[in-house]
Amino acid sequence: MNFLRNHLASKSAFLIGGDIIISFAAVYAGIFQRFMGGPPQVLSTYDPLIPRALTFSIIVVFMCFLVDLYDDDNITDKKEVFLRITLANFLAFLALGAFYYFIPYVQIGRGILIFSIVYSILLQAVWHVGYVMVLRLPVVAKKVLIIGTGPVAETMGNLLLSNNNGFALAGYINCTDEPIHVPKDYVIGNGDGLLSIASKEKVQKIVVSLSERRGAFPVREVLNCKLQGIDIIDGPSFYEQMTGKLLIENMNPSHLIFSDGFRVTPFWRYIKRLFDVFFAISGIVLSLPFLLIIPALIKLGSKGPVLFRQKRVGEGERHFTLYKFRTMIQDAEKNTGPVWSQAGDKRITKVGKLLRKTRLDELPQLFNVVRGEMSFIGPRPERPFFVESLKKQIPYYSERHCTKPGVTGWAQVKYEYGDSMEDAIEKLRYDLYYIKYQSFSIDMLIILNTVKVIIFGRGGR
Questions:
Q1: Domain boundaries, the chain
Q2: pLDDT digits over 144-174, tens only?
Q3: Band of residue 311 on the pLDDT scale cut at 50, 70, 90
Q4: Closest CA to 146 of 97, 197, 91, 83
Q5: What is the maximum alpha-carbon separation in the chain?
Q6: Domain boundaries 142-243, corresponding CATH code
Q7: Residue 74 above 50 pLDDT?
Q8: CB atoms < 10 A from the CB of 217, how many?
């Protein structure tokens, strides 16, 4: 529930809920349009109508998800919104045609389907464009006041200024002697009279973003604001809600200890293991044709073994052997030692490029899941050489090994392939967010995103 509240509810649940209602209603509008003026008894042939409308709604919303319609960074341009909605509904039209062939019980007529798609496109366009326009209204956006003027406050301010999430920056409160990193025009107080400032600016949320709170935090003033109904939140928690990742550079151990999350119970581990085995075995069965064809393609394309075996670091920093289909030439690191794969890496074979783009090279890892060395969902397992190096340079890097590594994960679907220290830090932010809020809901979202990544071939190298 924490994940749903922090991520889905703040980013896309409102839009998804509206689209479900709209696409559901579009079926009724399509039937009305198709049989306008016709005999009423024709409608009885579509009883019960709810399962048909619900099927249409689910597939339309799923296609909207596939085309990134619910990504907040992509809902600001009206033309792009309309194009994404049109593409999603066109894909839904094709998918429904195939779906009706196998399950005719939920089928609606071709004429009704066309009318329903048209209504869905028009109503969704009005809904999404209207949503963006409303968010931009000053009277709607929630005013946020940031306590602090240092690097953490600067990060929070930039986040507010660059994100259309219904928040607006009211200003900064400078209550320390630290150097000012934010625009001075936005500094509107020093901590004294905080409540009066918040009331004047109509602030609804205060984000505490001090690098050092001792001797600087205006406790009494913030408490007065809290008692007047203003929401108080610390910087790292606000960052999590806005981005779906953790702010590890400026995060104190106390934040990890006292904040919500990190509640992994024995029961959840048991359920997750059942989940892993079910999906791994199902994946192996469904991918049997690929497991037979891919080895032949690899053999025809280059010399060397079909499977690539490599030591990786798993739960508790224990080493295990990870299996993948080989995508590079044999002995690719013979002269270089362990190195990250780069864009346009010449060591990757022609067949390997296709396998990496579609993530089919990772199919053998399903056997790692069955053996209990990996989970279906979790942080990506890294090589021991890189782990030892990253542990020395990145705070909290070892914490990612408190759970089993995964075939797919939050970092994999939210961030493209990493080949640098900066990329490793960014992916760790996502990994720790998953570890903190791991639940059935985030696992389902990761699976849906993984399907999207595979279909569109994003992020692979």
A1: 2-135, 142-243, 266-456
A2: 999 988 888 999 999 888 766 678 899 999 8
A3: very high
A4: 197
A5: 79
A6: 3.40.50.1980
A7: no
A8: 17
